[in-house]
Design brief:
Layout lengths: L2 H26 L5 H20 L4 H24 L7 H9 L4 H20 L1 H8 L6 H28 L20 H19 L7 H13 L2 H4 L3 H4 L3 H7 L10
Helix pairs in contact: 1-2, 1-5, 2-3, 2-5, 2-6, 3-7, 6-8, 7-8, 8-9
């Protein structure tokens, strides 16, 4: 089997999982669980590629360990955060804007779209796993950056969860800890994770997989990340306007 066919097998695996998620959404009348599935799409792709290449070398083991830890942590956190019968306000708005047939259109505008995006973003995982070049220092650097991003994202999520758990903080803005240095430390951590995976792919000679981290960066900065979350947050939290003036949006920096 040639390599592009193996890469395509990742899309098939992800799509089948997305189809199962869509069927579940029909029973729940709620699509929010697609957030929990997102990291599993990417983890599933890595294991699919590994099954076809039949070899567990040092680079493949590094990728599988890192992507598994990342995927399980993010899936568990989002499942815990979204554990209620109400649909997330973002998806509720999409449902409202897509009329009475959202039950069907959600198959491709929610589940199908995220499956394809995850498949493209998984490109560095494929490039690293299919490589036969020796393990080298760039692999180690990539692993360090992935680990840093994972920890930064995890700490940011933990700090935000603790902040929201206190009733006295309702309507207030978290501006301490990592949130003192950027308004979206969890997204910055995610950014580091996927550029770290790209460095591991680059160590294996797969420079062409750069489309993956570029797409993730665009999503985080311009589509489903910073821009979407801050679209109406000023209306819900008046203090946020002042927070924007003093704090970097994405890349960490000293408060102004």
């Amino acid at each position: 089997m040639i390599h592009w066919q193996i890469y395509s097998a990742g899309l098939i695996a992800i799509s089948l999982f997305a189809l199962a998620g869509w069927i579940l959404s029909l029973a729940r009348d709620n699509v929010t669980h697609v957030d929990s599935m997102w990291s599993l799409f990417l983890g599933m792709s890595a294991y699919t590629y590994t099954l076809f290449f039949y070899e567990l070398n040092a680079r493949t083991i590094l990728v599988l360990v890192l992507v598994t830890i990342w995927a399980i942590r993010l899936c568990g956190y989002l499942t815990w955060r979204n554990w209620n019968p109400h649909e997330d306000h973002r998806y509720a708005a999409i449902r409202k804007n897509n009329g009475p047939h959202f039950w069907f259109t959600s198959l491709y505008i929610i589940f199908g779209l995220q499956a394809v995006l995850a498949w493209i973003i998984s490109m560095p995982l494929f490039g690293a796993i299919e490589s036969k070049l020796p393990f080298n220092d760039l692999d180690i650097l990539g692993g360090i950056i992935v680990t840093f991003g994972f920890l930064w994202e995890t700490i940011g999520d933990w700090q935000l969860s603790n902040f929201k758990a206190k009733p006295s903080n309702k309507g207030k803005v978290l501006n301490t800890g990592l949130w003192r240095y950027s308004r979206h430390p969890n997204y910055f951590g995610e950014f580091c994770v996927w550029w770290g995976f790209y460095l591991i792919a680059l160590a294996g000679g797969a420079w062409w997989t750069i489309a993956g981290p570029i797409l993730m960066s665009v999503l985080l900065l311009k589509v489903s990340g910073v821009v979407l979350l801050e679209k109406d947050i000023g209306e819900r939290r008046p203090e946020y306007a002042e927070y924007i003036k003093k704090t970097n949006a994405f890349f960490p920096g000293a408060p102004k």
